[in-house]
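Researcher: We're teaching a course module on how sequence relates to structure. For the next exercise, students receive a sequence and then see the predicted structure as tokens, so they can try to spot secondary structure elements on their own. Here is the exercise chain.
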Amino acid sequence: TFRCYHSIHYYKQMIQPTTALRKISALRKKIKGIQGGQGAGKTFAILILLINHASSNANREIYIASEELSKMRITVIKDFIKIMKSFGIYEDRNWVGGTLYTFNNGSFIKFIGLDKEDIGKGLRCDVMFVNEANKIKFDTYRELTSRAKQIFIDFNPNSKFWFHTEVKNRADCDFIKLTYLDNEFLDAGEKYEILLYKEKGY
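Model: And here is the predicted structure for the students to work with:
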């Protein structure tokens, strides 16, 4: 079970909690589906929770999967490093192969790109985070998560996909929608662009 928003350990207190983080940390079911558009801060908030979980609990096996590893390096992994440094617990020597980060308590977070059809099959883990789930196939999702104890799924509200038809209505699934209004620390320039898109009807 993940710690609630109020008990998250913020180390150096350099990252301020958002409404998005509070809402996600309140989810209690096995599967946590998080829909959010640009600027909602959903992925960043999930990373905070996963880092907190790994650093606070020994021997946790956590996987973060996305469509392309190359894209993850400039998005998810970049944010992961930023959060770790802000918490004051980042150690460059803890990387293995550039995709596996080990914690001193035996826990690890592994980043996997789904470029190969067989990657991720048969993984038994404590947590599986499927990032930008609308970009992968349902069969791939099933193979990734069938042995996971906890599952995070995030995606943009572009259109309905397998989450809405196959996962959302499961008894063990929580679902929330986030917007840029749930991210109080969104950069002013990006917020302006989002409001402009809305005004233009994009």
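Model: If you want an answer key for the exercise: Strands lie at 31-36, 61-66, 95-96, 100-102, 108-113, 125-130, 148-155, 173-178. The helical segments are 19-25, 42-56, 69-74, 76-87, 138-145, 162-167, 188-200.
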